């Protein structure tokens, strides 16, 4: 079996028509990787479309894209669909039904990815999918500069907590150093990433964090976001990005939980941890997935019931820390 990274590079060189896709509701890594892959294909003179089941999130509206982000393939005459940062096919949303698995190449760093393409480069040791896309750019001789570097930096910075999470790799830092040497202004790009809040988002965070609680001898922090909170503050799910990390700022908290009520019923949950606490196994036991220290999923439960069930599971995960 050929090395999947080299096989993807080979197929990019050999093909002419491409789709670039990522998980629905793209975060900084998914959108940054999508844009970066587009810039790579553009530099090679390839034809490509950027597709996603969701539009560009408002907080990333500043990001330069090499093509519009559309919600479905315009035709079926593509050589390869490059699917980025997607832990399984279902995370593509409706787009999953529109792609031919025999022409899908998966590039992802999520633990537990089943490999749903004809070529699957899945490497959980990578700090972000953006790191993997940057390596493909280097394999193809594309300099990490200009809008490509800005997109890659966004992917890397947002998925590593600006290079503070334990999953941050030496390779990711070396890649950023190369981007800086190529002219990347990390101060300017960092400001565009961080300084996108609305007053409504500030009001949401104020209300939500006011109800933050801890349990399990102060080792688990829980955050609950109801539809009523979102309605009162005139905010959306995008305004919840990063909320969960505030629970980890509390001294003694080793694992954190955020449950967000969905408009159609049920909840979306996010889990975070520090150090040795493996919350990927907790997420997997509830049908979710992700990484050792960052995972999530969905549950068909009322908000309070889901919060209780997940908090109990996290308590068991942190129990060994109490000796």
Automatic annotation (TrEMBL):
Residue intervals of the DDH domain: 18-155
GO molecular function, a single term: nucleic acid binding
InterPro entries xrefs: DDH_dom, DHH_sf, DHHA1_dom, Oligoribo/pAp-PDE_c-di-AMP_PDE
Domain DHHA1: 232-301
Pfam family, one: DHHA1
Recorded superkingdom: Bacteria
Protein known as: Bifunctional oligoribonuclease/PAP phosphatase NrnA
């Amino acid at each position: 079996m050929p090395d999947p990274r080299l096989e993807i590079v080979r197929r990019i060189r050999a093909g002419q028509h491409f789709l670039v896709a990522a998980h629905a509701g793209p975060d900084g890594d998914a959108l940054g990787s999508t844009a970066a892959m587009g810039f790579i294909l553009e530099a090679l003179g390839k034809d490509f479309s950027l597709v996603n089941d969701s539009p560009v999130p408002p907080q990333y509206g500043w990001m330069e894209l090499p093509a519009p982000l559309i919600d479905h393939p315009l035709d079926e005459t593509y050589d390869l669909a490059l699917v980025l940062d997607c832990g399984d096919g279902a995370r593509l949303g409706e787009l999953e039904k529109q792609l031919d698995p025999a022409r899908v190449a998966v590039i992802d760093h999520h633990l537990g990815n089943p490999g749903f393409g004809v070529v699957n480069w899945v490497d959980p040791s990578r700090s972000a999918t953006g790191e993997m896309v940057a390596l493909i750019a280097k394999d193809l001789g594309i300099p990490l500069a200009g809008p490509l570097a800005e997109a890659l930096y966004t992917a890397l910075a947002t998925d590593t907590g600006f290079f503070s999470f334990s999953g941050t790799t030496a390779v990711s830092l070396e890649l950023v150093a190369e981007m800086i040497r190529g002219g990347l202004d990390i101060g300017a790009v960092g400001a565009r990433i961080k300084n996108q809040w609305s007053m409504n988002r500030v009001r949401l965070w104020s209300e939500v964090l006011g109800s933050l609680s801890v349990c399990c001898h102060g080792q688990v922090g829980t955050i609950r976001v109801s539809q009523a909170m979102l309605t009162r503050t005139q905010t959306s799910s995008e305004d919840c990005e990063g909320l969960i990390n505030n629970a980890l700022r509390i001294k003694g908290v080793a694992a954190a939980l955020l449950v967000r009520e969905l408009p159609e019923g049920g909840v979306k949950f996010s889990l975070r941890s520090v150090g040795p606490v493996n919350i990927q196994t907790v997420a997997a036991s509830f049908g979710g997935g992700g990484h050792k220290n960052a995972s999530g999923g969905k549950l068909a439960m009322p908000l309070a019931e889901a919060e209780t069930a997940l908090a109990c599971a996290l308590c068991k995960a942190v129990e060994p820390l109490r000796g």
